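Ticket #4471: structure export looks truncated?
Reporter: QA, pipeline team
Priority: medium

Steps to reproduce: submit the single chain below to the structure queue and open the exported record.
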Amino acid sequence: MVGKADPLRLNVPLLGKDGVPTREFALFLNEVWRKVIAPDPDIPEFPEDMARYGLVGHWLKGQRGNVVNLDYAASISPVLDDGNIFNIAVMTGDMAIGDPVGMPDHIGQEILIVIRQDASGTRIPSFGPAYMFEYQFNPIYSTNPNAIDAVVGTIVSATEILCSYINDFG
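Actual output as written to the record:
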């Protein structure tokens, strides 16, 4: 880059002490995006990592996340860095869904966990202590053959996920 578009010449700090790009650099990239790369006002602002830097973007199309397919196991724990939507393969036995990996770094993240019964049904999922369901009750699980249930939650602290359990989609 040359001239005004050169962040080093403008003394824009690229990285913070934690090694993460600074807000100033993100704002600089947004400005370059709007003035140089996409000057058309109908093109959204610089799309990369805007939420990470506290910037608000205007999107012209729907946004979607990665669906993480998890193989059935007697015990699993979703990895929050992998996505927000976790699709668990058909349960062929009871299953313990442990607290997600990386909760302290993902406060505010929303998750969806899809749980499927096999053709026999009767499989029971259980949840780690961070999952907090309405009314402090354990959810009522669908045990019908081929039923589909979902857990919708928001990580509100390093040790708590406020959840709703929606049963029997199938």
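Status: closed, not a bug. The export was complete when the record was re-opened. Leaving a note from the reviewer for reference: The helical segments are 23-37.
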